[in-house]
Amino acid sequence: MMPSSLRSLAMLCLGLAALAPVPRRTEAQAAVNWTVAGDEATRLLADYLRIDNTNPPGNEPAAATFLRGMLEREGIPVEVFTPAAGKANLIARLTGRGGKRPIILLHHMDVVGASREYWSVDPFGGVVKDGYVWGRGAIDTKGLGIAQLVALLTLKRQGITLERDVLYVATSDEEIGGVLGAGDVAKNHRAALRNAEYVLNEGGSIVADSSGRTLYYGITAAEKAPFWLEVIARGLPGHGSAPRPETAPNRLVRALERVRNWQTPITVTPPVEAYFRAIAPTARPDLRSLLSDIRGTARDAAALARVTAVPGYNALLRNTISITVLQGSSKTNVIPPEARAQLDVRLLPGQTQEGFLAELRRVIADDSVEVKPLGIGWPAPVSSTDNAFFRAIATVAQRLEPGARIAPLVQAGFTDCHYFLELGMSCYGLAPFRLSDVEMRGLHGNDERLSTENLRYGTRFIYELLQEVGR
Fold it and tell me: Mind listing the pLDDT tens digit for each residue in 248-261?
């Protein structure tokens, strides 16, 4: 991150209330009936959720056809690209005056699987009941895609011309790395992105307490980087009735036990320091002072232990390793010649793959055990908070919810943002939904759903954000 970005992160957390004066609403904004717009978004999301985009295989062309039909009916030009059989990426453009570089509204069409026997509704039924739209992808990320879409359609219907083009981008394959989705768009269709300046993606949300009171607007400005590894141990095969000490499974188990016990070093990065300082007033009372001065806390073992006992905080203070896949023999009575494991490693901003891999091999301390990358990995994405787009998000949050706190998040997971940062764009994660615990449990879980109130508010937020950044 550049020095100006570091200064802006610190200034943001020290002076969140010192925002620019809130602009007056235009007549066009005042004319929008947000109840009607919310009802439209609800209907469209229900229809969108009825398309099964479980990946694999994804079936994204069906979703792209659905979105394309709505956009073309409103007179918005659309391009659909097919990077491979059964895959599709969509780019639509609402043309502006061209005085400023475009903004991208990004979401992915694919979803993770759903075990129907554990759902109380059909996960692909598009059910609307009890004030929610139910279905796999309602939060991740079809709900965001529909809020973006209805905001775009509302601008078009009102005849509002912004200084910027607005690009609506829907991609494939995010749930399995994005190579044929955002990766293909960034690599092979750069001209269609028209040198965009900013990207609004998934990742952040409005964080609320158990009563629904807003704690802060979490805007993802940085992410940890995935670095997936395979560990391979080899040894003499044989019959299970005659065990040997140096079999492949035994070597693998010893190596993994060393990995499991390895406490990776604590590293306080500037983005994480800024995030903790921003959210400290909303944290548990016993953690507030510890988070507000995380560098000082890191020098006190007892205090640090209290912070790292929270898994989400711990993940932002060190490189993490999860042992996820184990493979050995296919038969109980056969000692295999080879045993394998896979590690889900997440690296902090500023950490290198080469440095981490060398240290991991030192920890395993067994030259007969191979450790190799699986091909999923890139530098940790970090976007500046010192620009017009980030300030526009803060302005709109204050307009719609006076006194709202803004926090620049660091996300332990990853999104498609890195593909766009590699093109020189700034990418931010914010689905402007106030998600309850019930809604959060549905994310990659059972009974995923999004409230109709969230959908209405999110649509309005994105609409006003486009107006603010497109002046």
Answer: 999 999 999 999 99
Contacts of 462 (CB under 8 A, 6+ apart): 105, 147, 148, 151, 200, 432
> Would you call 276 helix, strand, or coil by DSSP?
helix
Integer CA distances (angstroms), 105 to 136, 141, 298, 429, in order: 21, 12, 38, 11
Query: How many CB atoms are located within 10 Å of the residue 20 CB?
Result: 10
Answer yes or no: is pLDDT of 25 > 60.
no
Residue 3 reports pLDDT greater than 60: no
Asked whether 125 and 45 are in contact (CB, 8 A), the reply is no
Give the pLDDT band (50/70/90) at residue 438.
confident
Predicted TM-score (pTM) of the model is: 0.90
Torsion of CA 308, 313, 314, 319, to 10 degrees: -160
By C-alpha distance, which of 84, 49, 90, 50 is closest to 68? 90
> Is residue 284 packed enough to be buried (19+ CB in 10 Å), middle (13-18) or exposed (0-12)?
exposed
SS3 239: strand
**Can you tell me the distance from the alpha carbon of 96 to that of 26, in angstroms, rounded to the nearest whole number?**
18
* Tokens linked to 20: 């620019």
The closest alpha carbon to 249, from 133, 348, 340, 182, belongs to 340
Strand blocks (E) in 112-252: 127-129, 132-134, 166-171, 198-201, 205-208, 214-223, 225-234, 238-239
pLDDT at residue 90, rounded to an integer = 98
CB 44 within 8 A of CB 146: yes
Band of pLDDT at residue 30, cut at 50, 70 and 90: low
- Angle 288-294-300 from CA coordinates, rounded to 5°: 100
